[in-house]
Structure to design on (140 residues):
């Protein structure tokens, strides 16, 4: 399950992050990254971003975004991000709202893969657990 950056809630309440109307991206991070509640901007995590052939700095924009209420829990999901013909090594991803550039981009959540993912001139794909990026609430 993704870990939510505390600043995300404030950014939502203040209207800075709009999950459906805004541009939401996922960037891949290496195993050197450790989640911190103090991180709030993409510039806080950019030094840990993965690099490789077929991967652009800043990651990829999410498409097919959906926001639903399921069993009294707000659920944000999207189509699986894919990098084709890519050579990438990553340990997780950070989802963020694009506000202009790294010191302005607001972090949403971080999730670590079960194990480091590696692609070599092939498909690199993020499979969100249960198809869900963000699960906001408590299930009964």
């Amino acid at each position: 399950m993704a870990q939510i950056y505390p600043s995300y809630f404030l950014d939502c309440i203040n209207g800075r992050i709009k999950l459906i109307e805004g541009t939401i991206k996922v960037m891949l991070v290496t195993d050197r990254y450790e989640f911190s509640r103090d991180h709030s901007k993409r510039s806080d995590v950019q030094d840990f971003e993965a690099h490789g052939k077929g991967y652009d700095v800043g990651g990829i924009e999410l498409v097919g975004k959906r926001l639903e209420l399921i069993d009294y829990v707000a659920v944000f999901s999207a189509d699986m991000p894919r990098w084709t013909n890519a050579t990438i090594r990553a340990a997780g991803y950070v989802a963020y709202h694009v506000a202009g550039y790294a010191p302005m981009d607001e972090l949403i959540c971080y999730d670590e893969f079960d194990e480091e993912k590696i692609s070599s001139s092939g498909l690199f794909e993020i499979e969100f657990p249960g198809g869900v990026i963000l699960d906001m609430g408590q299930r009964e």
Observations:
- The two ends are 17 Å apart (CA to CA).
